[in-house]
């Protein structure tokens, strides 16, 4: 141990006193006995006076100010030393950032005393027995005398004070004050501190005061004390003053000066200064934390109406806990410090102790974490309340009562909570809007600030918003979003009296209104996208009726005025002239509409895919979808999940059925039936674009091949309402490892109905590809093989035409929304991200494709349908021609008989002909209008009329009296006994909506008909020879005409076959026969099983018979096509185009003898035509990403999600001339084949 100085810190001891460095205390008494002899003590004057300035109030800063280092500082912090005199300054540490702390240190030195152990006369005055006290480590060797005085200055700053400027001014004043001290100590003329800041607080600490400091009113009082310092010194310790520090000699070095009676055992382990510095920082942090908590508590107490009592008490508890933690830390530090100094424990225990209190549960940081938690919120509340806002929250005002208390004038309510303040941009924008409202509206419209942490009103998504209320109802849910939305919108406003809300449907041919603003101040070349000023939805112009549509309804375009979002427009709505506006609307293009046809076999999951597809476009991530209010869905679908409790092997597996959506015209697919029952169009609005998703019934319908025909006709009828297809998505499963009969049939059936020009728009989508790592999986090779069979199509599988989706993440979302949580969420999250990426890629690809003309596919399938219809009529017509030729030849032979004269000849000139006559029934009869239950025949009356023969008398005598006659699907007809409470007829199995009541039946009668030319000659009294020649000529002419029409029909069939071969992707589905055979075998198995069980199998027998008829009809069709698919032989057989098909059909319908019969035998499917208008508008209002627009809350007037189920025919407009206008999109005679299908 070396000599060291130890600050006196107000403690008084004599020379020779013993000191224990382990406890940092002086022991009573001294090793000196009596008064030391002359020469044993030396005194040396050390007169010196100086003043200094220090800034700061922490423990470290105060220790440095008094030159307290290392072990002494640690002892003070541990409570081993209680400073007195000027050392009391060390006790009052302050770390409050709003308190500026500084001090003037005035130091006067007088005398240095030193004990001289080398003096021989001293040895007889030493009591060395005291050295046996092993607790002592040092002896006081010298004392420095004088007086130390500290004048502490503090300034309390306000919250909004400029800290730097205040600190600079404070330090400048301290410097001035020091000069005053120095002047006073020199005895200069009286100075004044009147220029000091009156907000300063002064405390005087001096060795002349033993216990506490002296609080002063002004700095002048401190200066007065400085003047009195010489007097204080002269009156203390014989003019020496007070001890300033002690020089300590280690006892282990005493033997160098005197002979000791025994060897001293002194131990004291040194401690690393780094450890001690860490604890100084720790206790400073406790002071900082306490200052923060106390300031925060005071602030809360001042604003108790704006915060919860529980929070105030929690802060109070934190202050108490902090004080206890600090005290406990001090006690444990004291014990550890002494233990290490004594060598009882290693110094590393202090490091462990520091980490425990610096980082553990009792750390200053954790115990003061609550400080300021509500600070920013209180500042905000105080600010807005001072500007006129009315606070609702912890003051227990009722939010509902406040809103309801205002009538038409209404009020505003700013909803917020503590978390809402963390969204900086949104928070700042809403606050700026709030301050604007307080400036403008507070005089007339009250503005409430609603603290949702306290009020009954909850805040969705922790985002602040300003609501507008009128008559107690929320009219605007988010004023900021509303204003931003409105600022971006160009608005069109209709005259309210012109609004028509009676119709829910919209015409298919419509365009978004994108025209310049009519205002003269606006740029006439700038195209604006217009939205309704009431519902804020984009407005669309309907070409068929000249109405403009929005979510309000529809209104004539003449009733609209416009206000664009240009800076120069102003606030007024400006009208167009009717002629100008009509011209602009009539020239709108359809580039914003993208039509996507979705095809696939039954069970592939089209309905689920469309629901999932909409969600993938709506939400960028699965988490965003989970956080949404509801599940987006447009089609009912369902699926089952199984819940297994593997911890209990005896517990049964629980199955849950998850259902999504619901409509009366769709099944959900949960019981094996095809979910999609008819073609529907879901119009999905994303930004300014509309994607029409055309959902189709599955090919390979579970109800049989007849329904495949109906479904295909239904698809074509829907497509006929549109001009273009931008994309054709063929959905396939990813696990078809083999070319099964059903798989081949379904793929080829789809390709058979598509025009060759559609190949550029066809892509393949694979469902449930998570099991194949998001690739086509097992289906890839079978599909490639199938496409290679028709390599001339140009249809291939490539990256641009292959899309791999997975609906499992949508199923997970549906289950989650139904309260069923599934495991492995991370897998579903990855599935969502991939499927969304594929969905966006698919939409982007279709945008780049040249649209496929729908009329090409419609014409192609019209020709195919004609050929199917012609096969059976051709056979019947051929037989009819042969029969008529035979009859005519017999007549000719009879007429050639010259023995036939006079009246006998005239009788032979009368021809027998079958005609139909109607007979009135006593009671109504229920009959079926399905084409398979009807025959269409010539009336036989020579007027060209075709009559309908009802073969199926489903209820021959019906007693219902409230069913209108000759009305198909009259609502009351369902009560007929033919249906027995079901939807299908017991006799013919067709749907009840294909039935009607009749009050007559047609009977065949044979009549004699006279040729008109023969009749004329008879009336002219022609002779027998003339009559005979005329009869023979007419018979020959009729035979020739029959043969000619037969030849024309055969030539037409040949040309249609060539048309199919040239323009269809595949002219014949050669997998159909195998597919029907499979269905026949399946039905035969059902019949056999039913017989063994003695069940009624009549329906199965009828279905089997229908399948066999389907097979025969297919074979006839294939025979007709393959027989005539040859190269053209002459100009008459030149390859047809769509227009040529229409012209050829017109000529066939114009055949004088069999044209009307041919037209009447069309395979018209009534049920497919009942819903010619089935577009289901759906607006995505969610947070999409990747170019689809981020979701944000829209103003209250514009609902984010609109689904309108539309089944009605579109409106017809009667112009001034009284004739109805029609949109003949599929123009020409060919369109008559699909009368009732295309939009009229």
From TrEMBL:
Instruction: Please list the residue ranges annotated as the DUF7656 domain.
Output: 384-484
A Pfam family assignment: DUF8206
Kindly give the InterPro entries that the UniProt entry links to this protein. DUF7656 (IPR056073), DUF8206 (IPR058519), P-loop_NTPase (IPR027417), Sigma_54_int_dom_ATP-bd_1 (IPR025662), SNTX_MACPF/CDC-like_dom (IPR056072)
Gene3D superfamilies linked: P-loop containing nucleotide triphosphate hydrolases
Start and end residues of each stretch annotated as Disordered: 1188-1229
Domain named DUF8206 is located at 920-1001
Residue ranges annotated for the SNTX MACPF/CDC-like domain, each copy included: 5-256
- What is the top-level taxon of the source organism? Eukaryota
| Coiled-coil residue windows | none
Q: What is this protein called?
A: G domain-containing protein
> Origin organism of this chain?
Clonostachys chloroleuca
């Amino acid at each position: 141990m070396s000599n060291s100085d130890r600050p006196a810190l107000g403690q008084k001891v004599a020379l020779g006193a013993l000191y224990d460095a382990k406890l940092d205390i002086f022991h009573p008494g001294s090793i000196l006995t009596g008064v030391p002899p002359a020469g044993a003590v030396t005194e040396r004057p050390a007169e010196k006076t100086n003043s200094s300035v220090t800034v700061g109030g922490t423990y470290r800063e105060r220790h440095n100010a008094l030159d307290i280092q290392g072990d002494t500082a640690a002892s003070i912090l541990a409570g081993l030393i209680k400073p007195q005199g000027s050392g009391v300054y060390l006790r009052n540490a302050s770390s409050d950032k709003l308190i500026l702390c500084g001090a003037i240190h005035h130091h006067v030195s007088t005398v240095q005393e030193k004990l001289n152990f080398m003096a021989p006369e001293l040895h007889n005055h030493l009591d060395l027995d005291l050295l046996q006290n092993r607790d002592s480590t040092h002896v006081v060797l010298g004392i420095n005398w004088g007086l130390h005085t500290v004048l502490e200055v503090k300034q309390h700053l306000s919250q909004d004070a400029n800290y730097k400027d205040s600190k600079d001014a404070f330090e400048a004043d301290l410097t001035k004050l020091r000069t005053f001290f120095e002047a006073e100590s020199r005895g200069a003329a009286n100075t004044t501190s009147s220029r000091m800041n009156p907000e300063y607080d002064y405390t005087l600490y001096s060795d002349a005061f033993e216990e506490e400091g002296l609080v002063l009113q002004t700095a002048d009082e401190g200066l007065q004390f400085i003047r009195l310092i010489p007097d204080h010194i002269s009156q203390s310790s014989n003019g020496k003053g007070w001890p300033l520090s002690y020089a300590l000699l280690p006892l282990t070095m005493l033997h160098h000066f005197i002979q000791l009676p025994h060897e001293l055992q002194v131990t004291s382990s040194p401690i690393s200064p780094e450890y001690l510095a860490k604890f100084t920082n720790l206790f400073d942090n406790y002071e900082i934390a306490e200052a923060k908590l106390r300031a925060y508590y005071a602030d809360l107490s001042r604003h108790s109406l704006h915060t919860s009592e529980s929070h105030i008490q929690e802060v109070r508890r934190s202050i108490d806990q902090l004080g206890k933690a600090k005290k406990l830390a001090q006690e444990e530090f004291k014990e550890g410090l002494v233990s290490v100094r004594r060598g009882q424990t290693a110094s590393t225990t202090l490091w462990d102790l520091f980490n425990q209190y610096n980082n553990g549960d009792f750390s200053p940081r954790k115990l003061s974490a609550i400080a300021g938690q509500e600070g920013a919120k209180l500042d905000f509340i105080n600010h807005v309340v001072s500007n006129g806002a009315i606070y609702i929250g912890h003051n227990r005002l009722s939010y509902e009562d406040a809103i309801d208390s205002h009538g038409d004038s209404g009020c505003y309510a700013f909803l917020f909570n503590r978390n809402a303040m963390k969204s900086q941009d949104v928070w700042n924008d809403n606050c700026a809007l709030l301050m604007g409202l307080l400036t403008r509206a507070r005089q007339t419209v009250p503005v409430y600030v609603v603290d949702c942490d306290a009020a009954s009103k909850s805040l969705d998504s922790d985002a602040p918003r300003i609501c507008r209320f009128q008559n107690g109802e929320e009219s605007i849910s988010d004023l900021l979003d509303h204003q931003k939305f409105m600022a971006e919108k160009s608005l069109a406003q209709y005259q309210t009296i012109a609004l028509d809300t009676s119709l829910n449907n919209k015409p298919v041919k419509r365009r978004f209104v994108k025209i310049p603003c009519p205002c003269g101040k606006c740029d006439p070349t700038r195209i604006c996208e217009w939205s309704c000023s009431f519902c804020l939805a984009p407005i669309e112009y309907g070409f068929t009726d000249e109405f403009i549509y929005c979510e309000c309804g529809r209104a004539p375009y003449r009733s609209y005025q416009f206000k664009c979002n240009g800076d120069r427009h102003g606030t007024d709505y400006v009208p167009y002239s009717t002629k100008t506006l009509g011209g602009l609307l009539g020239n709108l293009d359809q580039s914003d509409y993208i039509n996507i046809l979705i095809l696939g076999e039954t069970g592939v999951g089209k309905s689920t895919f469309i629901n999932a597809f909409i969600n993938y476009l709506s939400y960028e991530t699965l988490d965003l979808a989970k956080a949404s209010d509801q599940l987006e869905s447009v089609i009912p679908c369902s699926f089952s999940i199984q819940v297994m409790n593997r911890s209990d092997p005896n517990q049964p597996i629980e199955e849950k059925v998850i259902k999504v959506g619901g409509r009366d015209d769709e099944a959900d697919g949960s019981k094996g039936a095809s979910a999609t029952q008819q073609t529907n169009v879901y119009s999905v609005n994303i930004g300014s674009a509309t994607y029409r998703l055309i959902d189709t019934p599955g090919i390979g319908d579970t109800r049989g091949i007849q329904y495949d025909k109906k479904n295909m006709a239904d698809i074509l009828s829907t497509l006929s309402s549109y001009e273009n297809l931008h994309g054709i998505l063929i959905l396939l499963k990813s696990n078809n490892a083999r070319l099964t009969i059903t798989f081949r049939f379904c793929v080829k059936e789809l390709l058979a109905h598509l025009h060759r020009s559609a190949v550029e728009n066809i892509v393949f989508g694979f469902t449930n590809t998570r099991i194949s790592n998001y690739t086509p999986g097992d289906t890839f090779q079978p599909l490639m093989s199938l496409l290679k069979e028709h390599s001339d199509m140009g249809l291939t599988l490539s990256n641009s035409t292959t899309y791999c989706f997975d609906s499992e993440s949508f199923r997970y979302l549906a289950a989650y929304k139904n309260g069923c949580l599934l495991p492995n969420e991370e897998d579903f999250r990855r599935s969502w991200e991939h499927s969304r990426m594929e969905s966006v890629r698919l939409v982007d690809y279709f945008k780049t494709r040249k649209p496929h003309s729908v009329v090409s596919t419609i014409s192609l399938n019209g020709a195919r349908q004609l050929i199917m219809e012609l096969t059976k009529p051709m056979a019947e017509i051929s037989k009819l021609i042969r029969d008529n030729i035979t009859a005519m030849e017999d007549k000719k032979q009879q007429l050639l008989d010259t023995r036939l004269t006079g009246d006998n000849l005239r009788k032979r000139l009368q021809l027998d002909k079958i005609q139909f006559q109607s007979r009135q029934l006593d009671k109504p009869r229920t009959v079926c209008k399905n084409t398979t239950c009807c025959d269409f025949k010539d009336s036989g009356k020579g007027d060209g009329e075709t009559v309908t023969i009802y073969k199926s008398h489903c209820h021959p005598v019906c007693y219902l009296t409230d069913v209108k006659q000759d009305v198909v699907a009259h609502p009351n007809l369902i009560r007929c006994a033919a249906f027995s409470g079901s939807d299908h007829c017991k006799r013919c199995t067709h749907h009840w909506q294909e039935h009607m009541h009749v009050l007559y039946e047609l009977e065949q009668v044979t009549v004699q008909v006279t040729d008109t030319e023969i009749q004329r000659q008879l009336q002219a009294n022609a002779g027998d020879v003339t009559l005979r020649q005329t009869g023979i000529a007419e018979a020959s002419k009729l035979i020739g005409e029959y043969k000619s029409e037969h030849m024309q029909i055969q030539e037409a069939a040949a040309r249609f076959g060539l048309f199919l071969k040239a323009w269809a992707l595949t002219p014949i589905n050669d997998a159909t026969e195998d597919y029907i055979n499979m269905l026949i075998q399946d039905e035969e198995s059902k019949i056999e099983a039913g017989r063994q069980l003695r069940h009624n199998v009549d329906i199965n027998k009828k279905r089997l018979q229908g399948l066999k008829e389907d097979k025969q009809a297919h074979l006839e069709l294939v025979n007709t096509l393959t027989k005539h698919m040859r190269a053209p032989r002459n100009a008459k057989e030149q390859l047809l185009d769509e227009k040529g098909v229409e012209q050829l059909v017109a000529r066939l319908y114009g055949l004088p003898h069999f044209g009307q019969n041919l037209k009447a035998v069309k395979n018209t499917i009534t049920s497919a035509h009942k819903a010619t208008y089935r577009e289901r508008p759906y607006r995505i209002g969610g947070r999409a990403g990747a170019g689809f627009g981020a979701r944000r809350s829209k103003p209250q007037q514009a609902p984010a999600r609109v689904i309108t189920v539309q089944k009605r025919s579109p409106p017809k407009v009667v112009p001034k001339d009284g004739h109805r206008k029609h949109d003949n999109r599929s123009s020409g005679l060919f369109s008559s084949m699909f009368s009732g299908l295309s939009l009229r």
